[in-house]
Amino acid sequence: MDAVQCNRAADLLMQARLDHRRMAALPDDCRPIDEAEAYQVQDRYVDRMLAQHGDGIIGYKAGCTNVTAQQQLGLSSPFAGALLEAFALASPAGIPSEAGFMRMIEAEIGFRLGRDLPTAGAPYDAASVRPALAAAFGAIEVVDSRYDDWTTAGAAHLIADNACTGFWVHGQETTDIDSLDLANHPVLVRRNGVEAEKGSSANVLDNPLNVVAWLANHLCARGTSLKSGQLITTGTMIAVNDAEKGDVVEADFGTLGLVKVTFI
């Protein structure tokens, strides 16, 4: 895939976002055929979003960190995308209901880095990334897609679309990470005060620390790395589909706090 094709794909994704429309797929003449090409498109698409909306990249997301989700989408590993400041909000947050198509709620555990994870330290594992984490927090990712059917679009399309990122809402931080049972931390999601779903951090590669390690290694392999101060979100502990205008969604992470989104 050459630069012209990558730029055309990124332009089409950006125009779909601006026009608030969806497509079946990227055209044959600029369709990424594997993950490497998809990340090339993603990089250019993120550049266009930054140019349009300003601000910067505040960190990274890992998606498809659940083995079942990987099987459904034909993946053998998670995928990654950039967290953009323009679409990152502090809880409680209000999000325009017409801003996206899917409004899928994903309850996630996030971290703030207190030190770099440079390429020289790779490959990382859960034990070696833990000292780099300065704080943990609950988060809600509001997933969205530029495709008519994201479940059949294929992994390369989803990666190109910045891993289906819509909005991201983060809760209050705690620095007492060691008090958390990250291997089995619960979350309860309520919609309009009614219990909708329950989930566990065990659903994300058995432990969110494994996700941080995967993300660190992934970025190192792409010639970049995680930096001190950046934020990470580690994938869905549980999802709630199709929030509607007027819905109030709360992800209750217990000792990790409450994250709240209202669709206005």
Tell me what you see in this structure:
The chain is 27% helix and 29% strand. The chain is built from seven helices and 13 strands. It has helices at residues 3-19, 35-53, 67-73, 126-129, 150-153, 155-160, 208-221, and strands at residues 57-63, 79-84, 88-90, 93-95, 104-113, 133-143, 165-170, 186-191, 194-200, 231-233, 238-240, 248-252, 258-263. The strands form two sheets. Strands 1, 2, 3, 5, 6, 7, 10 and 11 form an eight-stranded mixed beta sheet that branches. Strands 4-13-12-8-9 form a five-stranded mixed beta sheet, with no helix packed on it. A hairpin with a 5-residue loop joins β12 and β13. α1 (3-19) crosses α2. The protein starts with a helix and ends with a strand. The model has no long low-confidence stretch (mean pLDDT 95).
In CATH terms, what is the fold-level topology? Fumarylacetoacetate hydrolase, domain 2
> Helix count, per DSSP?
7
Strand-pairing-aware structural class: alpha+beta
Topology as a string of helices (H) and strands (E): HHEHEEEEHEHHEEEHEEEE
Task: State the helicity in percent bands.
Answer: 25-40%
Number of domains: 1
User: What portion of the residues fall into strands of 2 or more residues?
Assistant: 25-35%
User: What is the terminal-to-terminal distance?
Assistant: 41 Å
| CATH architecture classification name | Alpha-Beta Complex
Stretches where pLDDT is under 50 for at least 5 consecutive residues are none
Fourth-level CATH superfamily:
Fumarylacetoacetase-like, C-terminal domain
